[in-house]
Amino acid sequence: MAPGFGTLTGLVAGAIWGLVWMIVIAVTFMLVSGAITAPPVGAAMLAGAACGALIMAFRTDARTPGLTIAAIATVGIVLVVFTFGAPLGLPLGTAPIAQLAAFAAFVGLTWLGVHSSVHGQPSGRLTRYQFEVIVIRLAKGLGLVFFTVLVALPFYVMVMTSLKNQAQLIANPLDFSIDLGQGFAGLFRSYIELFTIYNFGTFLLNTAIVAVGTVIITLAFAVPGAYAVARLRFPGQEFLSRSILMIYMVPAIVLVIPLYAVFSQLGLRNTLTGLLIVYPATTIPVALYMLQGYFRGIPSELEEAGLMDGLTRAGVIGKITLPLSLPALASVALYVFMIAWNEFLFAFMFLDNIDLFTLARGVYSLDSSEVPRQHLMAGAVIATVPVLVLFLWFERFLVSGLTAGSVKG
Question: How many Å from the N-terminal Cα to the C-terminal Cα in the chain?
Fold first, then answer.
């Protein structure tokens, strides 16, 4: 599409946003209420197009708050007029408050999408650069919406399914609404039964032991190894630096059978100790690779000054290098923890005793015709939430530590 007039570009952008938000809101309403809707996508596109054309019809200096109100009102008026008073295609029995909330969400989000795409751009003929700015903004916004829905939708279905009982799932498997009237015990029945009947407390403890142990062992070997590769000079240094990740050329499925045979002979199969040997062997190489790059980025003058002040090499690492490397250490620790927490193949092959199951192995044990589906979903939630919380908690340390290694010059 060649550069065109701003009004036409705003019209097209608005139509796209109207279509996208109508589909998103309709799907969201169906998931929340369990009712089938018939979203008026044509009217939604028309409403969005009218909003975009109205905004871009005025010069940038004339786009006052009054125009913003008019554009928002235009979305709602056009949608109502061209759908004959049933703007979202909702069932007649839908609660008025739900209809109002869905309608307000569509109007506000459509205007926001259009505004974020075209603000600051002229109403007349666009230059190539100005047209590309609008296209990039539109693509960025659509990508954000798409991937947000892609991530949030499965998690929502998983959580809502875990809060239902068997009768509700059989009655309507596609109804992902929840009944708050059943009380705490009824709502979280699946989670209570996982810990009281299916031994999930033990699974959590085993997984935490293995994951934390893997992080400690990995960092204990990776920190000095990465420092040696980054700072010291020895024969084979370049080869070692370049070949660290060669272990990933061998698929885990190829290693699991010989390891199974060896661990069976050594008495390490069906033990957490066996996992604490295998997991660090797979995580140490990537931790070495990540840390050596960060260590190389730390000015060597700082370490040389520490050596001149009487510190040993171990003292330099402990008092200078590691404090400056906290962002990298946090990243590596989180990455290794997530690998160990979610690992399934070795846990599935090595563990037979249910008292030693990790979460991944325990969730798999629920996948049978004898276990209700809501219990399987509850187990997946339990396995997912701790890592999510840990990531969000670590994120503030990663962001705050980004400038920890900076040097004034």
Answer: 49
Token pair recorded at residue 84 = 């004959």
Across 160-213, the runs of DSSP E, i.e. the strands, are: none
Q: Which residue has the tokens 């370490």?
A: 303
Mean pLDDT in order along the chain per 10 residues (409 residues): 67 94 88 77 93 89 88 91 74 70 91 92 86 93 93 88 81 73 79 87 93 94 87 75 74 86 90 92 87 82 81 81 83 89 91 90 76 83 87 68 43
User: b/e map of 114-152 (b: 16 or more CB within 10 Å)?
Assistant: bbebbeebebeebeeebbebbeebbeebeeebeeebeee
Q: Residue with structure tokens 């060597």?
A: 300
d(Cα 3, Cα 132) in Å, to the nearest integer? Answer: 8
In terms of Cβ atoms closer than 10 Å to its own Cβ (0-12, 13-18, 19+), residue 69 is: exposed
Helix (H, G, I), strand (E, B) or coil at 148: helix
